[in-house]
Amino acid sequence: MNSKQTFLVFILFLLSITSISAQYGNNGYGGNGYGRNGYNNSMSQMNQSQPEKPKEIPTEVTVQKVMDIMKPAINLDALQVIAISNVISESMREQSILLKQNYNQEDQEKNFKALSETTDRNINQFLNPDQKEKYLAFKEDMKNPKKLKEKRSKSKEKKD
How many CB atoms lie within 10 A of CB 33? Predict the structure, then answer.
């Protein structure tokens, strides 16, 4: 009888070891179970499953899109396109610097307004009087994107 009891205790011991081994991974604490490494693995998997930050659009691409709209609207020549592209690129670099700095809302608005005025002044240096009027109209259109889209679609219909 004593040997049967010893045998049963031994079997229970083996079963409990395999149960513990299954919970903590097959090789002790190193699996994907509840062991220390399992916790770290699950945390790293959670970090990987979070969506990545959207990639920033390069300044050159944005400037090119603005110039594609601005050139026909203001009737710019090639030299003006290059000069104004440089002004807009510099303005965008300064905007990104301002965004990275910790200003309160009011100061940040003042800084952006000053930057906008400086950019407008620099752009106006390259424009003739007729183009300056068109530039003011262009800026108003840019403030209201629906009107700009309507104008573009009308001009495309006229071309067809």
Answer: 18
- CA dist., res. 91 & res. 97, Å (int): 10
Distance in angstroms (rounded) separating the CA atoms of residues 1 and 106: 88
Q: Are residues 88 and 150 in the same domain?
A: yes
**In 71-98, which positions are buried (b, 16+ CB within 10 angstroms) versus exposed (e)?**
bebbebeeebbebbbebbeebbebbeee
Q: What is the pLDDT of residues 10-40, one digit of tens each?
A: 666 666 665 555 555 555 455 554 555 555 5
89 & 126 share domain: yes
Q: What pLDDT digit, counting tens, does each position of 90-138 carry?
A: 999 998 888 888 888 888 889 999 999 999 999 999 999 999 999 998 8
19 lies in the same domain as 91 = no
Confidence of residue 159 (pLDDT cuts 50, 70, 90): low
For the question of whether the overall pTM of this predicted structure is more than 0.85, the answer is no
Q: Are 101 and 144 in contact (CB under 8 A)?
A: no
SS3 content of the chain, % helix, strand, coil (to 5): 80, 0, 20
Residue with tokens 């309507």: 150
